[in-house]
Design a protein that fits this description.
By secondary structure, the protein is mainly α. Helices cover 79% and strands 0% of the residues.
Length: 211
């Protein structure tokens, strides 16, 4: 029982980390996919889940080496902000929030590029898989079985939540806005975290607390 107790604690820590971190990955995949028809939407989600699995496996194998490069967090956070800007355009969130007192004929808007969406999903997978693996690996404490469980659980959560989110957002634009805010928070935390590791005494105390 004494041997099992620490593993049970680690198990629940991993589950909690996966729920929090995989949700970010799922939200951004769902946001990207929601701009497309059902067939393409499912393809994008499938690619996103596959990418999430592949990158988590890769990062799990080289976690120790990656921890030595905090600049990767800054780059990842910056790329997430770029994705946010692109999603605002693709989801037409600004237009949906404007009042429609004067409706004037507008040209049909160009559909978002499937290839561009795939690139965005890959970037999100790389960035958020890195963060997820770091959290799970730290909690697993060299327990390989629990590490593998954590990676599989995170991928399952990404696929399930992304599918639901992509379908729901079609009729609820405000959810898209909320999702973008969540991704922005993750991006800022990554950038601040990487900056604090490179320059430990530069950031104010109140910023360090939100990392």
């Amino acid at each position: 029982m004494e041997i099992l107790y620490p593993k049970i604690i680690i198990f629940f820590q991993i589950v909690f980390i996966d729920i929090v971190m995989a949700a970010d990955n799922a939200i951004i995949i769902g946001l990207i996919a929601s701009s497309f028809a059902k067939t393409d939407r499912n393809k994008i989600i499938l690619l996103g889940v596959f990418g999430a699995f592949i990158f988590r496996v890769i990062f799990a194998a080289i976690t120790v080496q990656l921890l030595q490069f905090p600049i990767l967090k800054i780059i990842g956070g910056t790329l997430l902000i770029w994705i946010i800007i692109k999603l605002i355009k693709d989801l037409e969130l600004i237009d949906s929030l404007k009042t429609t007192k004067q409706q004037t004929p507008t040209k049909p808007k160009k559909s978002p590029s499937f290839t561009s969406a795939v690139y965005s999903v890959i970037i999100a997978d790389v960035t958020l898989s890195f963060d997820n693996v770091l959290g799970v690996a730290a909690a697993a404490k060299n327990e390989i079985g629990l590490l593998i469980f954590g990676l599989l659980l995170s991928v399952l959560l990404v696929g399930t939540v992304a599918t639901y989110f992509a379908n729901y957002i079609k009729g609820h634009k405000w959810v898209g806005v909320l999702g973008l805010v969540v991704i922005l928070i993750v991006a800022v935390q990554l950038i601040l975290g990487g900056t604090n590791e490179i320059y430990p005494n530069v950031l104010p105390e109140f910023l360090i607390k939100i990392i």
